[in-house]
Description:
Layout: H1 7-25, E1 34-38, E2 41-45, E3 51-56, H2 58-61, H3 66-82, E4 99-101, E5 104-110, H4 121-134, H5 150-161, H6 167-185, E6 192-194, E7 203-206, E8 209-212, E9 219-221, H7 223-231, H8 236-250, H9 257-281, H10 283-286, H11 290-297
Antiparallel strand pairs: 1-2, 2-3, 3-5, 4-5, 6-9, 7-8
Amino acid sequence: MPDDGGRIAQMTRAGLAAAVRVARQQGLPGDDPQVMSSRGNVLVHLRPAPVVARVATLTAWTRHDPFGWLAREVAVAGYVAAHGGPVVAPTALADPGPHWGDGLAVSLWSWAPPSPAAPAPRDVAAALARLHVAAEGFPSLLPDMLPLRDQISDGLDALERERALDRPVLAALRERHAEVLAELDGQAWPALVLHGDAHAGNIIGSAAGWLWVDLEETCRGPREFDLAVMIRGLSAGDIAAALAAYADVTGTPPPAPETLAWFDRARVLEGAVWTAGMAHQYPARYRGKVPALLDEALGRGGAPGRVSAPDRAP
């Protein structure tokens, strides 16, 4: 895979320009914009306004409809925030969108000054439970298990289109995806509104407590998927504490370890495909992670990561 050759800097400039253009169209000042992050998306604090623009840049490459992903995120986060749930809310100072800015999808969010503190696993779990409870009555249609369906299929299509992986590897990934879908379709999972990417890196501390961000993969599906994502890489003790904290809020018993194990293995496939797509565009950051993830997703070079009792390999 080639070096990015300045692609990331160029994409960051494009994302910044799109954010400022949308801010001006919406009557926001944005006179002193600050790029907060430029990875899968470009995040811009539209200073002096307490608004953050989220611009789909690298993620748009892997998705057939990047605008739709942001639209679902705004809708679900707005609903959860209105019902007291722990999310960073879409801005109330303008139309949160999403909007098109210079050909890029842009959504607008409330600025939540971040805390340097890191959440404990039980904090993450309690916040996830409160999100699930607050989202329970969300009235609109959402895709079914988006991370394991479109996130993977769109990503594989992009990798094939750009010839970013060898054909045998792509074929093996598609075969593994077909297995995941067959198992998924063969079960009657109780469905609720999921975060879709509920790891601790997507929760921030604020004056209002722990708040979720990055709901781009929100969908309907079984709680076990969000829980499997949440506990991946934790110790046995932290897993037990997190699942107990979730159960304390929801009043539901912890799920069976073997169910979490299945979703964890499926999540590994999603992570491998997503990382391969990011590596094709941003090799300096992601390329080194791809071989091990592909091996794990395809069951090569050792057992795949799984959730089990009482412990699991990180």
